[in-house]
């Protein structure tokens, strides 16, 4: 079971006590600025992380118009400007304001399932029945579930 790591959550993200849901409340919360916390982008990491094997998790999203889900390297940059790109150790797919990636805005709310095959370097995203595959080189690093919850 993937849960949200509240110690990594951007200050406008509120993680539920059971760590199963997260919401962008749009207002900064008073949280410690620890080294693992994202400080410029509304992101949060999940646990557990993986260094091998095949794994998957499913996310239900609501009316959020800007989001992304996938995996990030454990050493992903947490401070300063963050680009959601493989070069930044973030492999993701999502829905973006003004344009969308593999999602139909008419299918909001919906589900996304993320499949990881660590050894093969494959990530497969099933967004409401639309499949997308990303190739990745994790270089032996642990990867963690990654979530971006835009405005």
TrEMBL record:
Cross-referenced SUPFAM superfamilies:
Concanavalin A-like lectins/glucanases (SSF49899)
Q: Which UniProt keywords apply?
A: Neurotoxin, Toxin
Domain (B30.2/SPRY): give its ranges: 1-151
**UniProt-listed Pfam families:** PRY, SPRY
Q: Which InterPro entries match?
A: B30.2/SPRY (IPR001870), B30.2/SPRY_sf (IPR043136), Butyrophylin_SPRY (IPR003879), ConA-like_dom_sf (IPR013320), PRY (IPR006574), SPRY_dom (IPR003877), TRIM/RBCC (IPR050143)
Q: Which domain of life is it from?
A: Eukaryota
* SMART domains associated with the record: PRY (SM00589)
- Name the family the entry cites: Belongs to the ohanin/vespryn family.
Q: What role is this protein assigned?
A: Neurotoxin that produces dose-dependent hypolocomotion and hyperalgesia in mice. May directly act on the central nervous system, as it is 6500-fold more potent when administered intracerebroventricularly than intraperitoneal.
Q: What protein am I looking at?
A: Vespryn
What species is given as this protein's source? Answer: Echis coloratus
């Amino acid at each position: 079971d993937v849960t949200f790591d509240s110690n990594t959550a951007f200050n406008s993200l509120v993680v539920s006590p059971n760590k199963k849901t997260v919401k962008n409340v749009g207002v900064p919360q008073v949280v410690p600025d620890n080294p693992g916390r994202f400080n410029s982008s509304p992101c949060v990491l999940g646990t557990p992380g993986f260094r091998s094997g095949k794994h998957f998790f499913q996310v239900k999203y609501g009316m959020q118009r800007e989001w992304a889900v996938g995996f990030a390297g454990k050493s992903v940059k947490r401070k300063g400007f963050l680009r959601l790109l493989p070069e930044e150790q973030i492999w993701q797919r999502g829905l973006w304001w003004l344009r969308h990636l593999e999602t139909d805005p008419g299918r909001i709310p919906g589900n996304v399932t993320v499949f990881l095959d660590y050894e093969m370097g494959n990530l497969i995203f099933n967004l409401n029945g639309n499949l997308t595959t990303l190739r990745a080189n994790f270089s032996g690093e642990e990867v963690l579930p990654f979530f971006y919850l835009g405005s």
